[in-house]
Structures
1.
Amino acid sequence: MRRNTDTPSGGGSILVTGANGQLGKELQQLAAAYPQYDFIFLSREDLPIQHAGEVQDAFRRYRPQYCINCAAYTAVDKAETEKELAFSINAAAAGVLAAVCKENNCRFIHISTDYVFDGVSTVPYREDGPVNPQNVYGASKLEGEKQALYHNPDSIIIRTSWVYSEFGKNFVKTMLRLMSEKGEISVVNDQYGSPTYAGDLADTILQIIMQLPAHSPASGIYHFSNEGIINWYEFAVAIKELSHKHCKINPVPASAYPTPAKRPAWSVLDQNKIQQTFGIKINDWKQSLAECIRKINKIGK
């Protein structure tokens, strides 16, 4: 846990769950740029959100004005055989957090996923579009959205896609490792989406909070990713170019890599609502990828 205690009055405190994940780490990196807030970063070990009593104790102790729920069960394939655990963390716990936030006059911001959709569209998914998850992970996250809004209609839910950062395990870091270890790799070229740099998502969440007095409107579901539509193969090629690797990358269909959990062929999210509501400026995916790789290289030196 890390806490910023040098906070001017007037900003309020922000409790971040799942603080050691990709998004939680990026929020920690940004905390110093938002000195008007007192940040309370709680890891999975500090606050297992599926334990309601511990959630209530944490809110009594810290009394936050805002809660960003970055905690989630994200092992997409393992979720197929660990359904109960996935639903406990992604669904039931989200409802508990939302309810406790409501009881404590705390604005709840919950992170969800493009996997709530079935991936058969050919146009970007809108927030009010029909949902139809194709795997247990997506179903658990969709139920988490429902639980959050049921227990706390003032909840803000942000769906995102293809998240990566300089922290944790993600596609970008995996590609960088494989390109260093192998002379040739194969990457799926028939699944399309929009990458999301977790640093951009973190900054967007904090920009939203700055516009949220405790009881203002703007609740509901929003979509956020970086701008642009690509497939995984094109993403890998860009990673190779920006990192100056020499590995050969072969495009292959998803059928060449069967997985326990079905992945959507189309994961593009329409972002007009979040831009119009909060005036969010969204970076191009390649611009943000270059920034992330620069940071990864800096960490490695």
Note: The CA atoms of residues 34 and 206 lie 8 Å apart.
2.
Amino acid sequence: MAGDIFNKERAIVTLTSSGASLTNNSAGSAGTDLDARASGNFDNDLSCNFELICQWATITGIAGNTVVAELYLIPKTDGTNAPDLETTAGSSRLPANAFVGIFEAQKAPTANTNARFISPTVYLNPLLYTAYILNRSGQTITANWTLKAVGARGQYS
């Protein structure tokens, strides 16, 4: 029998800290799946927040209010397989219904320096997801970007 739904503090889960370099309009996946199923790394979580940490060698055109990346959660509805995706460098396309939010620069970043971005709250179904970011910054995101997630609301069972 399920218990109450409540806000909770939970440890941050690093989905990747070694993301590959991404040219503009290229998608990259996190290395670790977000698992909102029973006994997964986000079991009983109903919502979470994401943090993207990345940098650019060139920052031309990245100013305040620039969308630097989009966040997608691609469900593996059968527990194993993701839907077909187009991840060709420079022309990646991900399913619109898997889009969950943006990462937006509030000020121009500094070249070769990590910048941190936050997502809106993302609501989860009890599924296995692969998180993807889609670079929209106009510049190449350098290798070793990091994507983290933290549960925010869950159900006591």
Note: The chain has one domain: 11-155.
